[in-house]
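Thread title: Can someone regenerate the structure for this chain?

I was given the following input by a collaborator and told the matching structure tokens would be attached. They weren't. Posting the sequence so someone can regenerate them.
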Amino acid sequence: MESGKFELVWVTNRRLSEDFFADVRRVAQGGRADKILLRESDLPGDEYEILARKTLEIIAECDSGAQLVLHTYASVASKLGVHELHLPFAKFRASGGKRTVNLADLNLAKFNGNCAVKDEISGVYAPNLTQNLKIGVSVHSLEQALAAQDFGADYIVAGHIFDTPSHALEQGRGLKFLREICKNLSIKTYAIGGINFENLGEVKDAGAAGAYMMRGFLG
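Best answer:
Regenerated them for you:
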């Protein structure tokens, strides 16, 4: 695993906010988030683009230095000049990995189990605009983490580490799980799930390059 600054990433969830853009401003002004992952990929592409544009405007107004990361929508990243994209493992694998992931919006892929019907993939083709995308991939096992690395992911996000309301029916995989992934990968491993400012030290000691937090930034 690469070393460097321990990074903190705020993962957005507009359902937790009474005023989403006010929360964006508060996190940006707070100065603790190195990145903001706009996770709202359940939105249609045009609505997601509007949300991303406004989020970028707020970050710029606050002059916080936080970097915006988009989720799934490669064409929106191209339009807005965002250079980092987050993908679920299944979509990244179905796309064929980083060699082809930038060619289309993967939210439009139809899946049969974990495999996309590639003829059904459509979107805005812009390989020249998106070829420099940095891509992070969510994983939930060592096998997925190793596969994502083999497919060309720039980093992985492993979870969920601790118990969290977002996965109320599943126990956290724990710090042993995180340490195992960090030890076996040559790319950066970030941790997600039930992480807050009180347990950050444990996450860092396990070897993670950083932590993704949702509620932790809103508390």
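The mean pLDDT is 86.
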